[in-house]
Amino acid sequence: MASSKGSWAALALLLFAALASTAVNGDHKLSARYYDETCPNVQRVVRAVMAYKVASEPAVAPALLRLFFHDCFVNGCDGSVLLDGTHFSESEKDALPNASLRGFEVIDEIKSVLEHDCPATVSCADVLALASRDAVAMLGGPAWSMPLGRMDSRTADRDAAENLPSPHDNYTSLVSTFRERGLDARDMTALSGAHTVGMASCVNYRARVYGSDGDTNIDPSFAETRRQSCPAGDNEDGGMAPFDEQTPMTFDNAYYKDLIARRGLLSSDQALYGSGGRQDDLVEMYSRDGKKFAKDFAKAMVKMGNIRPSKGTTVEVRLNCKMVN
């Protein structure tokens, strides 16, 4: 009897894996109601786990928002950033721009609950999309209806992850990088407002505050303050600094006010303001009108979340976000 039960359990797992796998790239239309029939409690589960995690460690909220960006910007929003490396494949986690990513354990916990409630149904990519949306709301930012139905890639691309937007990029490079992903300058400027929360390490802002990258568009007192926690020299350790000094854990429009004051932490932040024209007008509008920023940010997040894996990508619904089925 025990052997029979074990055989049925093994068969059931194989069937779940087979149902979860697909050979196409998930090129169907996303919908906020995608799981209404198959897993109606998905959003409640994600929100409950997120509320618990953020209450005990608020810094996990901006970490998950960043994780979603880094997933979508490498071959679309396909959960590839969540995969561990194996003897046969590298992991995007090992790319230099991803070295400081965190929050993976939160996605794993949400996924574990969903696998209990709705086995082989909700993709890791959708879990991450919902978690990032809830992270923003829990920090005081906007909420929005998140289209769902993404699939999980069976492969990762470490090389592409090495080419994520750099903290040293200028405006032209940033516009080009976002345009390649179907996002325009307005989307880019709104999405950059995610830096109204969270922290950056010294290695990412050292060149700006010491002027070694040629960036002179910086308030001298701000540069001096940041140098106190970030010693000169590439071999020197340095501390973390908030993107927004005034409200570092509140999702508001203070980021844009900092740019106007030439107090953007990264060179790529400050690159959004100071050249004049329509770009400066956009930053100034967001600095005055927090509601307009919130609306445009939510719209841009949906647009970014719609970036699909490239044609021919093999996808599935992973049972474990760290590994393929």
TrEMBL record:
- The record places domain Plant heme peroxidase family profile at 29-325
**Active-site residues, record numbering mapped to chain:** 70 (proton acceptor)
Q: Cofactor(s) for this protein?
A: heme b; Ca(2+)
Catalytic activity as recorded in UniProt: 2 a phenolic donor + H2O2 = 2 a phenolic radical donor + 2 H2O
Per the UniProt entry, what species is this protein from, by scientific name? Triticum urartu
Q: From which domain of life does this come?
A: Eukaryota
- Group of enzyme by EC: oxidoreductase
Q: Which UniProt keywords apply?
A: Calcium, Disulfide bond, Glycoprotein, Heme, Hydrogen peroxide, Iron, Metal-binding, Oxidoreductase, Peroxidase, Pyrrolidone carboxylic acid, Secreted, Signal
By what name is this protein known? Peroxidase
Q: Which gene encodes it?
A: LOC125524632
**GO cellular component terms?**
extracellular region
Site entry: Transition state stabilizer:
66
Name the residues that bind Ca(2+) 2: 196, 244, 247, 252
**Cofactor detail note:** Binds 1 heme b (iron(II)-protoporphyrin IX) group per subunit.
S-S bridge residues: 39-118, 72-77, 124-321, 202-230
Where do the annotations place substrate binding? 165
The catalytic activity of this protein is classed by the Enzyme Commission as 1.11.1.7
From which residue to which does the signal peptide run?
1-26
Named from the GO MF annotations, one term is: metal ion binding
Name a biological process GO annotation: hydrogen peroxide catabolic process
